[in-house]
C-alpha cells in the first residue's frame, strides 16, 4: 500500500466518484503501468526510461507536465533530471529546494505523497518558481526510492482546474515504484561496472609489475653470463634470459590491452611474433594469423610461450644458424572450439623418431609441458627442406 498522502482538508478532494469515464481512466492507467513495466525490462537506457516515465505518467493523468527530480545531496537541491512539457533550459538545468517547505522536498524528506490542488492558495508549502513561471495550478509528488536510499521525487503538474484524487496518487506511486526498481538496477549495474573496472586496473598494474620484475631477472641472467668464460654455461644462461624475457613481453602486451581477461588470440600472436622478429634480427618471420579468435588470457599466454620456444628453436637450428633464415608463423581457426598454430622453418630437420616429449632439450620439454597444460596436440610435419610444428589447441579449457 502507498504511504498515507498529505492532502488538503477539503472533503471534495478526498471523494472519488466512480463514473464510466473515471473507470475508463483507471483501466487506461493500469495499461500504462504495464506498458512502463515492459519498457523498463526491454533494456532501454536510463535516460530513455526517465523520459518515457515522464511522458507516460503525464498522459495517464491527463496532465501537461511531469518531471523526475533527482536529489543532489551536496547542494541540498532537487535537479530536474527528465521531464515533459517544460520550456527549453529546464530539464537537466533547473532545480528546486529539497527542504520541507516545498512539496517535492516534503515528499522526499517524509516519504509521504503530496497532493496540492490549489497552489495559489496553498499555505503548507511555497510554490516553486518553476511551477509559477509555467502557470501550474496543481501538483502531485511521490518519493522515488532506489538502492536503499531515495533517488528523488516523481512529480506531475497541470494548469487545469481539475483535481488530483487518491486514485491518481495510487497510479503515480505505481509508476514511481517501477521507476524505482529500474533505478536500483541501474545503480547495481553501475557498481558492478565500477568494480570490474577496478579489477581490470589492478590486473593491468599486476601484469605491469610482473613484466618489470621479469625484465630485471632477465637482465641479471645476462649479466651473470657475461662473467663466465664457459661457453656452454654462457649459452644456457643466455637461453634462460631469453625465456624470462619472453614471459615479460607476454605480460607487457597484457597490460596494454583493454580486456585483461579475454584476448584476441590472432592479435596477441601477431604482436608476440613482431617482438620475436625484433629480437631475432637474423631471421625473417612471416606472420599470417586469423583475427577475432577470442580466448581466455591464460591460454593465450601459454600458447604464445609455445610459439616463442618454437620460433627460437627454428631460429637457432634453421639453416644451421645461417643468416636470412625464414620462419613462417600461422594461426587459423579450425572450428568454433579449436585453433591451429603452425611454426615452419627451412632447417635440416629432426630425426624420424623425434618427439617433443622424449627430447632432452629444455625448450622441447617446455613445449611439451605447455601443450599438456593446454590439452593441445603437437604434430611434426617434415618438408623438403624444413620442419613444421603444428599445435592444435582447444579455445576453451575442458571442464573437469
Any overview of this molecule?
- With 400 residues, the chain is an alpha+beta fold.
- The protein has 2 domains: 11-189, GAF domain (Beta-Lactamase, 2-Layer Sandwich); 261-400, 2-Layer Sandwich (Heat Shock Protein 90).
- It has 10 helices and 13 strands.
- It has a 6-stranded antiparallel sheet with strand order 3-2-1-6-5-4, with helices on both faces. A 5-stranded mixed sheet has the order 8-10-11-13-12, with helices on one face. It has a two-stranded antiparallel ribbon with strand order 7-9.
- Strand 10 and strand 11 (338-344) form a beta hairpin.
- The longest helix is centred in the middle third of the chain and has 61 residues, at 166-226.
- The radius of gyration is 35 Å and the shape is elongated.
- Mean pLDDT is 82; it is low at 7-16.
**Terminal CA distance:** 51 Å
Give the strand tally.
13
Number of contiguous helices: 10
- How much beta, percentage-wise? 15-25%
Q: Could you estimate the helical fraction of the residues in percent?
A: 40-55%
The tally of domains stands at: 2
Instruction: State the major sheet.
Output: 6 strands, antiparallel
The CATH fourth-level homologous superfamily of the largest domain: GAF domain
Q: Whole-number radius of gyration? A: 35 Å
Going by CATH, the architecture of the largest domain would be: 2-Layer Sandwich
**Structure classification:** alpha+beta
Assign an overall shape. elongated
Widest sheet: strand ordering: 3-2-1-6-5-4
- Mean pLDDT equals 82
CATH class descriptor of the largest domain: Alpha Beta
Order of secondary-structure elements: HHHEEEHEHEEHHEHEEHEEHEE
Give the uncertain stretches in residue-range form. Answer: 7-16
Amino acid at each position: 500500500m502507498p504511504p498515507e498522502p498529505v492532502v488538503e482538508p477539503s472533503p471534495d478532494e478526498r471523494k472519488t466518484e466512480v463514473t464510466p469515464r473515471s473507470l475508463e481512466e483507471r483501466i487506461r492507467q493500469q495499461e500504462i503501468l504495464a506498458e512502463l513495466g515492459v519498457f523498463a525490462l526491454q533494456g532501454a537506457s536510463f535516460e530513455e526510461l526517465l523520459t518515457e516515465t515522464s511522458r507516460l505518467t503525464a498522459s495517464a493523468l491527463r496532465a501537461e507536465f511531469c518531471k523526475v527530480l533527482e536529489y543532489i545531496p551536496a547542494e541540498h537541491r532537487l535537479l530536474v533530471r527528465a521531464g515533459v512539457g517544460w520550456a527549453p533550459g529546464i530539464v537537466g538545468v533547473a532545480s528546486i529546494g529539497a527542504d520541507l517547505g516545498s512539496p517535492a522536498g516534503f515528499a522526499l524528506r517524509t516519504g509521504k505523497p503530496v497532493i496540492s490542488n490549489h497552489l495559489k492558495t496553498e499555505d503548507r508549502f511555497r510554490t516553486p518558481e518553476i511551477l509559477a513561471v509555467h502557470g501550474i495550478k496543481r501538483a502531485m509528488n511521490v518519493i522515488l526510492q532506489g538502492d536503499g536510499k531515495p533517488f528523488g521525487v516523481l512529480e506531475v503538474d497541470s494548469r487545469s482546474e481539475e483535481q488530483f484524487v487518491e486514485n491518481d496518487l495510487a497510479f503515480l506511486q505505481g509508476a514511481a515504484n517501477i521507476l524505482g526498481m529500474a533505478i536500483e538496477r541501474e545503480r547495481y549495474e553501475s557498481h558492478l561496472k565500477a568494480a570490474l573496472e577496478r579489477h581490470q586496473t589492478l590486473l593491468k598494474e599486476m601484469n605491469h609489475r610482473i613484466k618489470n620484475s621479469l625484465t630485471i631477472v632477465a637482465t641479471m641472467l645476462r649479466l651473470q653470463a657475461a662473467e663466465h668464460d664457459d661457453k656452454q654455461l654462457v649459452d644456457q644462461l643466455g637461453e634462460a634470459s631469453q625465456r624470462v624475457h619472453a614471459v615479460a613481453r607476454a605480460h607487457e602486451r597484457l597490460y596494454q590491452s583493454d580486456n585483461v581477461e579475454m584476448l584476441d588470440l590472432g592479435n596477441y600472436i601477431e604482436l608476440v611474433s613482431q617482438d620475436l622478429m625484433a629480437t631475432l634480427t637474423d631471421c625473417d618471420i612471416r606472420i599470417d594469423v586469423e583475427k577475432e579468435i577470442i580466448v581466455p588470457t591464460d591460454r593465450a599466454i601459454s600458447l604464445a610461450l609455445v610459439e616463442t620456444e618454437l620460433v627460437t628453436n627454428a631460429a637457432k637450428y634453421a639453416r644451421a644458424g645461417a643468416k636470412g633464415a625464414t620462419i613462417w608463423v600461422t594461426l587459423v581457426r579450425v572450428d568454433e572450439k579449436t585453433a591451429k598454430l603452425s611454426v615452419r622453418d627451412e632447417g635440416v630437420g629432426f630425426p624420424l623418431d623425434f618427439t617433443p616429449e622424449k627430447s632432452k632439450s629444455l625448450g622441447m620439454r617446455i613445449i611439451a609441458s605447455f601443450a599438456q597444460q593446454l590439452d593441445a596436440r603437437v604434430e611434426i610435419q617434415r618438408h623438403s627442406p624444413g620442419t613444421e610444428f603444428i599445435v592444435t589447441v582447444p579455445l576453451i579449457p575442458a571442464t573437469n
